[in-house]
Amino acid sequence: MLELQPVDLRFIGGRRGLESDLAAVAGIRFHAVPLPSLRDPDSKLALITHLLLLPIATIDALTQLMRWRPGVAVTSGSFSSLPVLFAARVLRIPIYLWVGDAIPGRALRAVAAWSSGIGLTFEPALRALPGGRATVTGNPVRQSLLRWTKADGRRALGLAPDVPVVLITGGSQGSEKINSATGSALSRLVRRGAIVHHTGPAGLPKALAQRALLPEADRGRYQPHGYLRDEMGAALASADLVVGRAGSSSIAEPLAFGVPLVLIPFGAAMNAHQSANARAAADLGAAVILPESDLDGDRLSAVVSGLLDDPARLARMAANAKAAGRPEAAGVIARAVLALAGCA
């Protein structure tokens, strides 16, 4: 376990998004710059509006950093972080960039040369970043997730110890396309194993209705959940296979448990970064890719059943996932940040 001396953390973010609530829950003081996150990168009007706000937001960030005088600025390089990065550059505050995707975003690539250190989730990102500063650290995973074991997770969720378990998730808000394919294949999937389905809050009522239509003997093998918080750790630890999106955390968390993946990249993701993330995981031998354009109940059932019916292949993928997983990533990044701040 990493021993940290007390540090004062501040979070600067955009005016639109979940960061203010998350910072409050974590007990971190939050300041919002007058700049929302860039949610629609293809909108020219939105881009122009954000560019016009950028100087105002930069002055605001400069004022905050002059007041706080932090030892280091840490960012994942989103558009809303640019004011802080500009201010840190002016004040000669060391910058640590964390790159979650296999294809770094435009804003991040633009400021990478200013950084003193860069942490990466995926090795392919090295090709787009300055040499000598970047290290593959992995994606931070919450310790509250990692505390779960397979036996504990299955007991907590009421899952039999000798039944294959498949976790299906579309991310925190769920995915209508993944939910629809799961519903279409449900009667076939529950005959192959227990299904833990993270539907998202909006998808839960329909999933419960579909569960009620299953034969009574099969209902106990289907567990829909609208939202999983720390229980996600129980689900991940219990799983023999995870089906989900190809965001950085969506891949890193199963890998940290050594669980193989069926990845369905979000087709509208900016710069096709989820497709690149999925390819990186597949190249490690830990995942197979199911394109969103091919996704339906028949295809989902065939892919999941094909893997469960091939224990040797699934075992190889699990071994590759365990080798690729980096459950220590948060500590590695924390040590690098503290070193830049001069307090390690």
Task: Give the structure's gist in a few sentences.
By secondary structure, the protein is of the alpha/beta class.
Question: Layout of helices and strands, plus pairs?
Answer:
Layout: E1 10-13, H1 19-25, E2 29-32, H2 44-68, E3 73-75, H3 82-90, E4 95-99, H4 106-111, E5 117-120, E6 134-136, H5 143-146, H6 150-157, E7 165-169, H7 176-192, E8 194-198, H8 204-213, H9 216-219, E9 222-225, H10 231-238, E10 241-244, H11 248-256, E11 261-263, H12 273-283, E12 287-289, H13 297-308, H14 311-324, H15 329-341
Parallel strand pairs: 1-2, 3-4, 4-5, 5-6, 7-8, 7-10, 8-9, 10-11, 11-12
- Biggest sheet strand order reads 9-8-7-10-11-12
Number of helices: 15
Secondary-structure arrangement, i.e. CATH architecture of the largest domain: 3-Layer(aba) Sandwich
Order of helices and strands: EHEHEHEHEEHHEHEHHEHEHEHEHHH
Question: Mean pLDDT, rounded to whole units?
Answer: 90
Strand content: 5-15%
Structural class label: alpha/beta
Measured as a percent range, the helix fraction is 40-55%
| Name of the CATH homologous superfamily of the largest domain | Glycogen Phosphorylase B
Number of strands: 12
The shape is elongated
Largest sheet: 6 strands, parallel
Distance between the termini: 15 Å
The CATH topology of the largest domain: Rossmann fold
- Count of all domains: 2
Radius of gyration computed on alpha carbons: 21 Å
> Are there runs of 5+ residues with pLDDT below 50, and where?
none
CATH top level assignment of the largest domain: Alpha Beta
